[in-house]
Sequence to fold (254 residues):
Amino acid sequence: MTTNLHHRLLILSAIVFNIACGGKNTESNVKTPGAEKSGKDKALEAAADVIQDKSPLSAFNVYLDGFHFYNGNINAQMEAHHYVQQLSDDLYQAIIFDGNSKDAKIMGVEYIITEKLFQSLPAEEKMLWHSHHYEVKSGTLIAPGIPDKAEYELMEKLVNTYGKTIHTWHTDQERQLPVGAPMIMMGFTKDGQLHPDLIRDRDKRFDISTPKKKAQRETIPFGHVDPLANAWEKGHIRQFVIENKADSAIHKHQ
Fold:
């Protein structure tokens, strides 16, 4: 079986099992403000759901659940539900929600690249990215609902990747609207960083055991982690700021 065909079968199994289980067990952190949708709006939505093509959305066919923290504040932690599309063998993109039910809010996005692409980045850019080696090896990153073998092989692909994550709606702070500056997020890199209650709560909802997954993944090999990734560990914090300058917008669009 070729690698591409084998990977397609894994994705297919992920879709089937994610439909059957592994979702609809985590409500959004905030209630939607404003008046309830009108009957006319609901009718328009129903018609659009049948008529309109949604190719970009249908390509997000893998569900990953993990944890993030705000770059520069490791105690500000939250669960993150990733819906992932693989664009190529070296590049993924994900939409991040604060839950997996129909009222989930989009918290942000994550771009995931392989070691090969990461090494092509300039030094300053690398400092915005985090590694996934610990998330995979610790069992804290999961693909809910898919068979253990398929999850293992998916984690083999992800263990040496890097992610650049930006949250735009801070629902973990119970903000009912997406206010404030977007924030760069980071991933955990060793035991003792992630709050145990977050893991216990997640494991209970999904009926899984993170320690068991950690044991299952002991045999997943991983390579060298670039020292410029996870820059927060060395005290190098990068965050967005709101300012009144155009940020070189002229030359970016010439």
